[in-house]
C-alpha cells in the first residue's frame, strides 16, 4: 500500500539513479582494467626494448642531435691521432732503414775526404809559394815592358787557379754528408761591409799615388808601364778576390771566412816582390814607401781576419756545448 501511495515521479527518479550508479561503477571498472592492461603491456614493451641483444649483433645506436657534434669531433680526433701515429711509425721505420745501410758509406766518404785536407794546402804551396820564392825573378823579368808584365800576371793567374781549387775542396769538406740537410752559411753584414771597405782602400791608395805622379804632385814621376809592373798584378788579384768573396756570399758557402785569408797572404808576397822589383827599376822613394805602407796595411787586415776566424771558432764551440748540454738535460 505504501508503494502504491508514492508518486510515479519519485519511483522513476530512484530507478534512474540506481541504473546510472550501476553504469558508473561498470565504466570505472572498465577504465581501471584498461589502464592496468596498458601499464602491463608498456612494461612488457619496455622490457623487450631493453632486453640484451645477441652476442653477434651490434648494440643499437641511439641518435641525439646534441651528441652529433661530439661524435664528429671525436671521429676527427681519432683519425688525426691514427694518421699521426702512422706517420710517426713510418718515419721511424724509414729512419731505421736509412740508418742501417748508410753507416758504412758515410764512413767511407769520411775516409775519402781526409786526403783533401793535405791536397788543398799542397795546391796553394805549389801554385803560389814555390814560384814566388824559388823561381828567379831575373828569368822572367826583362825590364819595365809588356813581356815582364804578362809574365808576372801569368804567375798570379797560376796562383788563382790553385786558390780556386783549394776553395772548392774546402767547400766540399765543409758541406754535410747528407745533401738533403743543406748547408747555408751567410756572413754578417758588418763583416761584408768592413771587407769591402778594406778592399776599396787597397784600391784607392795606389791609384791616388799614380794620379799624383801623373799630375806632377809627386816627383820624380813614375812611368805608367813601371807602375803597371810594380802594382798591376796586385790590382788584378784584388779584383779577383772581390769577385770571389761576392760569389761565396751569394752562394752562402762556408768558405767565406777563409777566402780573404788565402788571397791576402799571397798579396803580401806580391808586395814584397814589388819591393824587389822597385830596386831593380830604380823606382822613386815615394813609390817604395807606398808599397811598404800597403804591406803594413794588409798585415793589419790579415791579422783582423785571423781574429775573426778565432772568434767564429769560439762562437761555434760555445753553441755546440750549449746544444750538447741541452740534449743531455732533455735525455
TrEMBL record:
Keywords from the named record: Membrane, Transmembrane, Transmembrane helix
Protein known as: Cytochrome P450
Transmembrane segments: 114-137, 149-169, 189-212, 224-243, 290-311
Native organism: Forsythia ovata
Keyword Membrane in annotation: yes
Amino acid at each position: 500500500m505504501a508503494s502504491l501511495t508514492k508518486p510515479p515521479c519519485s519511483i522513476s527518479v530512484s530507478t534512474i539513479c540506481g541504473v546510472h550508479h550501476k553504469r558508473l561503477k561498470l565504466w570505472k571498472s572498465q577504465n581501471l582494467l584498461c589502464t592496468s592492461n596498458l601499464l602491463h603491456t608498456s612494461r612488457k614493451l619496455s622490457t623487450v626494448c631493453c632486453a640484451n641483444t645477441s652476442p653477434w649483433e651490434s648494440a643499437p645506436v641511439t641518435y641525439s642531435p646534441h651528441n652529433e657534434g661530439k661524435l664528429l669531433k671525436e671521429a676527427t680526433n681519432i683519425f688525426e691521432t691514427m694518421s699521426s701515429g702512422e706517420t710517426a711509425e713510418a718515419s721511424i721505420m724509414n729512419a731505421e732503414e736509412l740508418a742501417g745501410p748508410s753507416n758504412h758509406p758515410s764512413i767511407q766518404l769520411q775516409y775519402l775526404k781526409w786526403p783533401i785536407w793535405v791536397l788543398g794546402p799542397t795546391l796553394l804551396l805549389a801554385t803560389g809559394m814555390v814560384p814566388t820564392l824559388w823561381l828567379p825573378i831575373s828569368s822572367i823579368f826583362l825590364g819595365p815592358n809588356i813581356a815582364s808584365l804578362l809574365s808576372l800576371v801569368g804567375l798570379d793567374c797560376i796562383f788563382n787557379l790553385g786558390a780556386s781549387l783549394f776553395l772548392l775542396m774546402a767547400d766540399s769538406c765543409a758541406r754535410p754528408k747528407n745533401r738533403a740537410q743543406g748547408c747555408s752559411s751567410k756572413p754578417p753584414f758588418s763583416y761584408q761591409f768592413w771587407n769591402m771597405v778594406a778592399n776599396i782602400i787597397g784600391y784607392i791608395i795606389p791609384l791616388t799615388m799614380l794620379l799624383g805622379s801623373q799630375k806632377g804632385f809627386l816627383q820624380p814621376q813614375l812611368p805608367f808601364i813601371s807602375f803597371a809592373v810594380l802594382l798591376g798584378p796586385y790590382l788584378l788579384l784584388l779584383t779577383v778576390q772581390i769577385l770571389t768573396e761576392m760569389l761565396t756570399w751569394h752562394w752562402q758557402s762556408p768558405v767565406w771566412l777563409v777566402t780573404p785569408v788565402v788571397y791576402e797572404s799571397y798579396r803580401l808576397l806580391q808586395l814584397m816582390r814589388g819591393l824587389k822589383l822597385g830596386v831593380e827599376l830604380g823606382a822613386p822613394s815615394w813609390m817604395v814607401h807606398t808599397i811598404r805602407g800597403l804591406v803594413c796595411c794588409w798585415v793589419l787586415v790579415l791579422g783582423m781576419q785571423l781574429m775573426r776566424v778565432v772568434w767564429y771558432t769560439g762562437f761555434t764551440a760555445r753553441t755546440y756545448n750549449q746544444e750538447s748540454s741541452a740534449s743531455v738535460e732533455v735525455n
